[in-house]
Amino acid sequence: MAVYTQVSDDALEAFLDGYDIGRPRSFKGIAEGVENSNYYLETDQGRFILTLFERRADPKDLPYFVALKQHLAARGFPCPAPVPASDGEPLQTLEGRPALIVTFLDGLSPKRPNAAQCRSMGEALARMHAALADFDQVRENALGPASWPLLWEGRSQTAEELQPGLAALIEDDLAETAKARPQSPHLPRGTIHADLFPDNAFFLDDKFSGAIDFYFACTDALAYDLAVCLNSWAFEDGREYNYSKGAAMIAGYESVRPLKEAERTVLPLLCRGAALRFFMTRLVDWTDTPADALVRPKNPLEYADRLAFHRQAKSVTDYGG
Ligand SMILES: Nc1ncnc2c1ncn2[C@@H]1O[C@H](COP(=O)(O)OP(=O)(O)OP(=O)(O)O)[C@@H](O)[C@H]1O
Ligand SMILES: N[C@@H](CCO)C(=O)O
């Protein structure tokens, strides 16, 4: 469930008085998502999503995310476009929370993406990077390599309980990725989504129709975004790497922006780093989520299995590139 903050009819009416988007016809909480409260809002002028940002969202980051979506929308990249209130400001306050209305996107998130969807996603990822090339705001990746040892601290026992022998492997991953500094400055950098999982992408049939959930977006190596996508799109049942899907995604990406030699060489390390990032955040949620919480934590072991694949990969060709 993801409606933490209830919005009363009166509060909604008063809130919409500050906008020029018509009167509400339908207003429903959205069950998907875990971070923020999301509502589907239909007015006589269109369909929208209303988000109330909850405690984990840092208010000082919100203007960056709004500017990023405005930039992409202005360049025709399909993403939720922030809707300004009558005072010209998209970020408002509702029920004591920062609130944002964005446009509704059509499409469905694939439960099990096929190779054609992976290709379309790869192509769209590169188009997104191109559209963001002149976005000049900077946000550090708060979940970059420097954060991984801190997330790991005190959790080796949990890893061992999940899978005996795992802690030593993770220690090795941390040492290797730190040594190689995968996000090194010689790689092309820019604004990346950093969490473009299938549940954050919409499709109409096999064609990409939009991306949502830009709340991990940051400035980092462009190829790291591809590494995040290969991890989240190209493994079957969380375990086996599907070479055809990976190859389709890389080919889609390269049809817009061919990878540089340095990116091709370092891709296995970037993939290993991306898998570590999701392993770590899932491990933290695994231990910190109370048993009676409304949200069920995602399984960290899926990413332990992906790490095993990345450890033995030698170059981009192992991923189908
Ligand atoms: N612009 C949009 N158009 C259509 N549907 C949307 C849009 N934004 C969000 N949704 C729907 O709302 C759901 C929750 O959104 P989102 O994934 O951003 O939730 P969250 O709690 O803010 O983030 P997280 O996924 O990190 O928990 C999505 O799965 C999608 O179904
Ligand atoms: N997409 C992430 C959650 C947000 O970081 C995961 O599946 O672990």
TrEMBL record:
Residues 27-259 form the Aminoglycoside phosphotransferase domain. GO terms for biological process: threonine biosynthetic process. It catalyses: L-homoserine + ATP = O-phospho-L-homoserine + ADP + H(+). One of its GO terms (molecular function) is homoserine kinase activity. HAMAP family: Homoser_kinase_2 (MF_00301). The keyword Repeat does not apply. Keywords: Amino-acid biosynthesis, ATP-binding, Kinase, Nucleotide-binding, Threonine biosynthesis, Transferase. It is an enzyme of class 2 (transferase). This is Homoserine kinase. The keyword DNA damage does not apply. It holds the Pfam family APH. It comes from the Bacteria. Pathway: Amino-acid biosynthesis; L-threonine biosynthesis; L-threonine from L-aspartate: step 4/5. Belongs to the pseudomonas-type ThrB family. InterPro entries: Aminoglycoside_PTrfase, Homoserine_kinase_II, Kinase-like_dom_sf, Pseudomonas-type_ThrB. PANTHER family: AMINOGLYCOSIDE PHOSPHOTRANSFERASE DOMAIN-CONTAINING PROTEIN (PTHR21064:SF6), AMINOGLYCOSIDE PHOSPHOTRANSFERASE DOMAIN-CONTAINING PROTEIN-RELATED (PTHR21064). Its EC number is 2.7.1.39.
